[in-house]
Amino acid sequence: MSFQAILAHKLEDGTVEASIETLDESILQEGDVTIDVEWSDVNYKDAIALYTPQIIQTSPLIPGIDFAGTVSGSSDPRFSVGDKVVATGWALSQTHHGGFSQKARVKGDWLVKLPEAISTRDAMAIGTAGFTAMLSVLALEHGGITPERGAILVTGASGGVGSVAVAILAKLGYRVIASTGKADEAEYLTNLGAADIIDRASLSEPAAPIAAERWAGAIDTVGGQTLANVLAQTSYRGVVTNCGFVGGRELPGSVLPFILRNVTLAGIDSVNAPQQVREEAWARLARDLAPSILASTVSEVGLAEVQGVVGKMLKGLIRGRTLVDVNR
Questions:
Q1: Which of 59, 70, 214, 238 is packed most tightly, with the most Cβ within 10 A?
Q2: 194 part of a folded domain
Q3: What is the mean pLDDT of the chain?
Q4: CA dist., res. 127 & res. 98, Å (int)
């Protein structure tokens, strides 16, 4: 049976060429579960995969690090035909065909059965970005950060991870400070639940290795100098999570926040998170993220529009989440 998908080829000159192609199911790789994909989404990693050779390791390959849909065949006893499932991360878009496709076949270990409160569309409105945001919130809670401890800073707040993080934290009762470089996004972030908006420029330049305490914790999506400055202004026994490095891979900071204020820096990996953690995160997303909030963070495109979206994403021109209706 044929289906449509974006197929990417790594060329000899180091570039990536991708187009929509009609494929046969024989192209699908080994796996226990076959899925009729309904929705995917566009993440920063997807943008890198379609524009550079850094992500895709097998060629040709269907990109897309996320998908959600309905099981159409399974040899895994945990999944039955008709189950609604979601997959994020793992080897998708690296060595295994991903979500920019109407069909997928993966290991059952890569799937999570969706809670009843989350539709396949909602799952991709959440996607890797929202899943990562929830992992970050769980890390703050694990470190003992409650709403009573003080404000939480979210950097890159108008992006995919940041938007969902702001919404979750606000619903849980935290006072959220949103950092963004887009002045026109203030109303958007306020509607998500942010109590204060600060300019990202105030965190992006070299500063003192330790400064006045401003927040009990932070969810940082930027890295680099921004992360160093966030740590420098975190309160005693605070927790800072980091899941990105658009601001740089280096950490040009000091050990002072760690040894003088007992600050914890928690790294967040969503790609290889174990099954138990994934199930907990999706259960919490069903409980702690209001579906009505998601509506203000998403836009929709079809497969043919994905490459235009990733171009804008690499230029920082995309707000919130972009869903991909693979059947459109």
A1: 238
A2: yes
A3: 93
A4: 13
**Token representation of residue 89:** 């991360």
- Is the model's pLDDT at 295 over the cut of 90? no
The span from the CA of 139 to the CA of 156, in Å, is: 18
Tokens of residue 52, six digits: 């550079």
pLDDT at 325: 97
Q: Quick one: which of 196, 225, 197, 230 has its CA closest to 212?
A: 230
Q: Is residue 242 part of a domain?
A: yes
Q: Is residue 303 assigned to a domain?
A: yes
Indicate the pairing of strand 196-199 with strand 298-302.
Answer: unpaired
The structure's pTM equals 0.90
d(CA 108, CA 95): 17
What contacts 204, CB < 8 A, 6 or more positions away? Answer: 225, 226, 229, 247
Verify that 138 and 106 share a domain, yes or no: no
Query: Could you tell me which of 57, 43, 61, 98 has the C-alpha nearest to residue 314?
Result: 43
Q: What is the pLDDT of residue 318?
A: 77
